[in-house]
Amino acid sequence: MDELVGSEVICKTAEETRAFGMRFAKFLPPNQFVALVGDLGSGKTTFVRGMAAGFGIHAAVTSPSFNILNTYSGNATLLHADAYRLDGTEYASSSLMLEDFLTEPYCLVVEWPERLHGFLETCDFIITFELSGKYRKITAKKT
Ligand SMILES: Nc1ncnc2c1ncn2[C@@H]1O[C@H](COP(=O)(O)OP(=O)(O)OP(=O)(O)O)[C@@H](O)[C@H]1O
Ligand SMILES: [Mg+2]
């Protein structure tokens, strides 16, 4: 995990972003909360597709923008949330309520975590996605 965390990785294609997500998931300890921070189209969902592969999940991962949360079973349960459409009102503390429903081992990964009140403060890893020309610069940090 050490070589994956802290350093910037330049991903030149969606396939490289996916491969990084897969590598990250394979090294991730069980029962982690992961925040994906980055602008629209910066590669967050692509990264989650790779994470799913890393957990041995074969189902197609789609963006949960409209249904907020998708779950997939593999070597761990992957819960993929997209808080883009939450705006910091009453739904916003749902990250904390979610803990009651998690069956181990799990990984909860959240796009637009800034909109889920309290999530950035409680998560285990923050992955940052930056557009750098036509490439993506991805940084994984342990909190
Ligand atoms: N490293 C990369 N280089 C080029 N294109 C990429 C790269 N990573 C992802 N993409 C492409 O960028 C587009 C947007 O990616 P993706 O849907 O993963 O972004 P997102 O951060 O989830 O966006 P949103 O905030 O809208 O959910 C996709 O077409 C994807 O294939
Ligand atoms: Mg997305």
Task: Bin the helical content.
Answer: 10-25%
CATH homology superfamily: P-loop containing nucleotide triphosphate hydrolases
Strand content: 25-35%
Give a list of the ligands.
Answer: adenosine-5'-triphosphate, magnesium ion
Question: Helix tally?
Answer: 4
Count of separate structural domains: 1
Radius of gyration: 14 Å
Main structural class? alpha/beta
CATH architecture: 3-Layer(aba) Sandwich
Q: Estimate the mean pLDDT confidence.
A: 89
What's the N-to-C terminus distance?
A: 14 Å
Q: List the secondary-structure elements in sequence, H or E.
A: EHEHEEHEHEE
Note the main sheet.
7 strands, mixed
Strand order of the largest sheet: 1-7-6-2-5-4-3
Per CATH, the class reads Alpha Beta
Q: Give the strand tally.
A: 7
Keywords:
7 strands, 143 residues, single chain, alpha/beta, binds adenosine-5'-triphosphate, 24% helix, 7-stranded mixed β-sheet, binds magnesium ion, Rossmann fold
Task: Give structural notes.
- This protein is of the alpha/beta class.
- It has one domain: 3-Layer(aba) Sandwich (Rossmann fold), CATH 3.40.50.300.
- The chain is built from four helices and seven strands; from the N terminus they run βαβαββαβαββ.
- It has a seven-stranded mixed β-sheet with strand order 1-7-6-2-5-4-3.
- A hairpin with a 3-residue loop joins strand 3 and strand 4.
- It is globular, with a radius of gyration of 14 Å.
- The mean pLDDT is 89.
Topology diagram in text:
Blueprint: E1 8-11, H1 14-27, E2 32-38, H2 44-54, E3 69-73, E4 77-82, H3 94-98, E5 106-111, H4 119-122, E6 125-132, E7 135-142
Parallel strand pairs: 2-5, 2-6, 4-5
Antiparallel strand pairs: 1-7, 3-4, 6-7
Helix pairs in contact: 1-2
Bound molecules: adenosine-5'-triphosphate and magnesium ion.
Residues 11-14, 16-17, 38, 40-46, 63, 111, 136 line the site of adenosine-5'-triphosphate (ATP).
